[in-house]
Write a structure and sequence with these properties.
Elements lengths: L14 H22 L8 H25 L6 H21 L2 H19 L1 H4 L4 H19 L8 H4 L2 H19 L5 H24 L5 H16 L7 H20 L3
Keywords: Membrane, Transmembrane, Transmembrane helix
Amino acid sequence: MNYTFKLNEANRLSIGPMMLMAFTQAIASLLPGLFLQSGKQLFSPPFILLIFYLVLSNISLTLLREGHRRHKHISIPIYGLKLVVSAIFILNFINKTTLQFGLLLLIYEVIQLIAYLKSEVYQEMFFFPLMIALFQGGIFNSFLIIHPNYELKLTDLLPLSFSVALWLSVEFLAQGFYLLNGNKGRFGLYSVGASLIAIIISFAFYMTGAFSLLVFFIVLLFIIGLYVILTYFQDNVQQLFSMTIMTIIIEIVFYIQF
């Protein structure tokens, strides 16, 4: 069924909160890379382009998930316009960086397109939040760490393992908000498992002397808080926004040590 979302028809879909959440998610996606980068890219053209692209993609993902939950669909003209704008961003990003980075963005765009075309199947799968978390927690941050004439070492990317696990926790929870087949509990368990992995990774970095025991316990408490805070909200967008804020806090506490 085709359906064009009226963004002001309900608070959960109002344009203001959606854009704020999309921007906050974009910042959360890039914070680890900003802390780990070897140069200053905060106001560089590629970084600005990436922010705009992520905001657009995050809005699209929210609408896709909400549409899936409601058994409705974004109309083809609206999504087609989104694809055109995304293509412009990707081409400009390639022009400012490298073809390889642009191809990775293209893959991310294809993942979203599949979610649009095969919503009933793809958005119910384990693979969907897994891929979103891999990009949000790892690949987008690698764009900030890797740059021309930079000799990359595997150890430079190891800290991103924590953000990938953290984003898996968030994305599995988010997936559970919109499922239709009764598997919300299963994805909740996936989220807890990902959080345990994030805690183990954090402890491993503590053991290497990357930060103090106090920092480890702060990270641990905020990861637990990621689940506790959900009990204070009923609306999906509010829950997602609260999780994003908690994610930003956890990332700051963890990555400011590097």
